[in-house]
Amino acid sequence: MKNFINRHKKWLLPVTVVAAAYGLALVIRGAGPEIDILVPEPQPMVVRVVTAQPEQVRLTVQSQGEVDAEHMIDLVSELPGKIKKVSEAFVTGGYFAAGDVLLEIDPTDYELARIGAAARVAEAAEELEIERTEADLAAQGLFPLREAMVASAEARAQSARADLAQAEADLQRTRIRAPFAGRVLFTQADLGQYVSTGELLGRIFSTGIAEIRLPLTDQQLRFLDLPFGSGSNKQLPDTAVRVRAEIGGRSVVWKGTLHRMEGAVDPDNRVWYAVARVDDPYGLQDPTQATPLVVGLYVEVEIDGQVVEGVYRLPRAALRNKDEVLIVDSANRLRMRRVDVLRTDFKQAYISAGLEPGDRVSISPIEVFVDGLLVKVVQDTATDDQLAVN
Fold this sequence. Notes:
By secondary structure, the protein is an alpha+beta fold. It has helices at residues 2-31, 108-139, 147-173, 218-221, 381-387; strands at 45-51, 54-69, 72-76, 81-86, 95-96, 101-105, 175-177, 182-187, 194-195, 200-206, 209-216, 240-247, 250-261, 272-279, 298-315, 324-328, 334-338, 340-344, 348-353, 360-362, 375-379.
């Protein structure tokens, strides 16, 4: 045996070491705790839902437009002459009242013309009186008949009175008055300037009412109760609007009304036009209005439309494929439901049919839908609060 070990010790020793190590490993493995292999159960997808409830909804229509004044006119000179006086209000942005004199042309020449015309009226009246006296004497046979002379004198007197009226009117026109209360958009004349007949002096606009011309598509007209072809120029009844604009980094809102519809479709873009009005846009009668609705401002306008009963109002994210929503049933499984969409906007979808009160509608983005997929529901209470506001 000893000889056998000596002859084969080169390979026998490594085999012995390996066998001992293997045996030791078996001992260690057998002495350790048993490991339980657990297979995790699949977790259901978490989805946010809103509870659908029918409600009364007032539909609104959004449009945009530029603020304009009810009246905006060019001031022009009706007479030639040198500007003698300029009102303090006749500056860009200046306020004035109706009847205020904004400019005055030197009236000297026109005053002299009026005096001359008045003198000619007096002369013509005296001449007419003489002719009438002589006509009375002629009727008594003391002078030849003078009916033609009387008629000529009456014509000259009438012409003189007309010249006087024209001279007085010209004298009044030297004072250029504001026909309405408003503001000056720009000026183009100043003190001492000589102006000709018809020359532009400036542009003014009224401040009592602001108007906004609003384009409306056929789709938008579906949701508005507007009379067409009624033959009436009266204001459209009970059609409120809210005018919004960003001024100085904050949103400002003015309240107004939809005043009228224009009588034709724009041939370029095939839209209708309505005109909204806002009273006292500059806050001259309301001191609490801090921000004026100025001419030229581009605004967004929300128009009150029809009131519809039994409409389900959902977040826009709930709508899939234009007319489908995902419903979570009583077993918390997803089901596809086709619905009738009344209208949509950037934030909400209005459903007229296809839902039942209490339906849980998913608003989570789900890329791949599997019918009957088990989900975990999280109620979106913030959205429900938002939808409860009319």
